[in-house]
Design a protein that fits this description.
By secondary structure, this protein is α+β, with helices and mostly antiparallel strands. The protein has two domains: 1-146; 152-311, 2-Layer Sandwich (Heat Shock Protein 90). It is built from seven helices and eight strands; from the N terminus they run αααβαββαββααβββ. Helix 4 crosses helix 5. The N and C termini lie far apart (61 Å).
Length: 314
Amino acid sequence: MQLPPANIQLRRAQLVLMLAILVPTILMTGVGVILLSLRSNAVTTLISGLLVLTFCTSGITGYILVSIFVTKGAGLARIQNDFTSAVSHELRTPVTSIRLLLESLRDDRLNESDRREVLTLLARETQRLETLVGRVLELSKLEAGQHPWSREPVDVRHLVDEAIAMFDAHSLSNPTPVSIDVERGLVAIGDRETLVRALGNLLHNAWKYTGEDKKIGIEAHATGRKLEIIVRDNGIGIERADQGSIYEQFKRGRAIHDSGIPGVGLGLAFVRTIVKGNRGKIDFVSEPGNTAFRIRLRRQREPEADRDTIPVTS
């Protein structure tokens, strides 16, 4: 016999819990109130009323706590189902392509030129599959707390330079200048390696979702005990209806999906996980032609310094 999905089972358990505990508890609360309101001096009546109300309070408290756990369990089950469905969908495309390409080679009906093209496509799809699996595993490792997060001083200017070097390596097909505005002497507390990758992801997203006239910038400045690193672009933006779910795994905005730009929707989930692992916060504002992602991190106190504005070409 096939069982219903886990989230449906949990919802049913919550309903049974409500009927079995909450309803009798509410009825007994009424009995307790009636006992206390009786105009009698009998100590037994008073004690009985208090005991009934105490029992009811404990029952309601237990119901609330169990209900919270059941609700969280249903939410986790839904996320698991969505994740499995999304991974299956994203894996199916390259696997199907690889199968069709292998079948064309097996039939041995291709000339030398077509054979070379098929082999090139096979290499591309295999790389795509390897990248997808690697990113899913890496994201799962980060979310499971298996990454040894370091808490050390990180020079923000060096951090930005490393992120731009990573960005340059991924945008060789269309080299793009990046304007830099970094406050001098700014030092963050965090894990340098993962922060470089988070900024590299944001820069690559900015490059991927902007048109021919790309304007990408990165800036950093202190705000009290924190510092902010902001990545800006003039791309297509994120529609308001999609902004609440943009950090979810395999979620892509409608405008991005309609544009036909390739991607699997893991980049921003990856960035948010890294920022949380570094005890920071990330937010954004977005509209067509103007998107800015802001990362807030704890900073190491330094003497007051002037802003060092250096527009450069990467």
